[in-house]
Amino acid sequence: MNTAEIKQTAKERFQGTCRVCRICDGRACAGEMPGMGGIGTGSSFIANVEALAAIKLNLRTIHNASEPDIGFELFGHELSMPVLAAPVAGVRLNMGGTVPEADFVMAMIGGSKAAGSVGMTGDGPGKVVYGTGIDVIKANGGQGIPIVKPRLAEDIVTRIRQAEEVGAWAVGVDVDAVGIIGMVRAGESVGPKTVEAWQKIIAATDLPFILKGIMSVDDARAAVEAGAAAIVVSNHGGRVLDHTPGTADVLPEIAEAVGENMLVLADGGVRSGTDVLKMLALGANAVLVGRPLAIAAMGGEAEGVTAVLNQYADQLRSAMILTGCASLAEIDESILFCR
Ligand SMILES: Cc1cc2nc3c(=O)[nH]c(=O)nc-3n(C[C@H](O)[C@H](O)[C@H](O)COP(=O)(O)O)c2cc1C
């Protein structure tokens, strides 16, 4: 199955909820929530893509970086690439209703595993969405990371226990979902918490803990204080608050502030291996990809997800050769063009 076939099949299965645009930039789907778009004007989704597009790379070819190593270690596990599948949930609500949630999540998690990487699963109103992710992670021998909504503390801990039982690699909470419309409409309790409250929740598990949805240095420092092992610099693909900056705009100062103390992951608008390279140069240790892998899962199941991840890996290797980086550790801001 080639990319064009995957996209064509995805387009049919999305039933208009995603146009599968040539460039997935949040313009055609602006405001479409439920759906695949960004909230309101779509500006936060669009800003993610624009922030990455604005970054130019220094082409360097006189060196000996001919076989770049893109292996990445995540919480003691060796990954083939620093590219992970982001949690994408609510398939029935957001993606046209033609593909069952379990099949979609299986494609994301199984496809990532087959590529030598790992995927995350999401959460939504009720117990089914999170439970589906847990079942799929179990079926994949624990190779997955469930992300819980910022629910009441006891409800988060219940879900952490489920993650532990299936041997998940880590667990996390998308803290940027504190006011997410779908949960609020469904009458589910989500809301912000203090550093002290996070300290208690994080101390309740031995699993590495991820706080996803960090967009400020203050929140990143609070995540360190709370005991998180990693953060994801993310605005939820522009789906929670209109008019935020792009994630690539805020990543450098966040990575600078906390990069020594924790793993810094980032997502939002990553559309190629070259975008992965840019995020790494801005200070991320690894990136998450959302919509492009969701399209691959809809149109090509696990095979589609594996194919797109491998394409990103090939593009990353090529971009590293062309910027003179032999390893991920060698990628830094010196490869970025500054006037
Ligand atoms: C339809 C949809 C559902 C999502 N569900 C979740 C979720 O349940 N939990 C979560 O942490 N993030 C969720 N996200 C956000 C993604 O994990 C990720 O942050 C975002 O999609 C990255 O941007 P990108 O799609 O431009 O790559 C969702 C995104 C989309 C498009």
Low-confidence segments, ≥5 residues, pLDDT <50? none
Bound molecules: flavin mononucleotide
Order of helices and strands: HHEEEHHEHEHEHHEHEHEHEH
Strand tally, please? 10
User: Roughly how many Å is the radius of gyration?
Assistant: 18 Å
Structural class: alpha/beta
Strand content: 5-15%
What is the helix fraction of residues, given as a range?
40-55%
Mean pLDDT: 97
Jot down its keywords.
339 residues; alpha/beta; eight-stranded parallel sheet; two-stranded antiparallel ribbon; 42% helix; globular; binds flavin mononucleotide
Structure report:
This protein is of the alpha/beta class and 339 residues long. Helix content is 42%, strand content 11%. Helix 4 (101-114) runs parallel beside helix 5 (128-139). The protein is globular and about 60 Å long. The structure holds flavin mononucleotide. Flavin mononucleotide (FMN) binds next to loops.
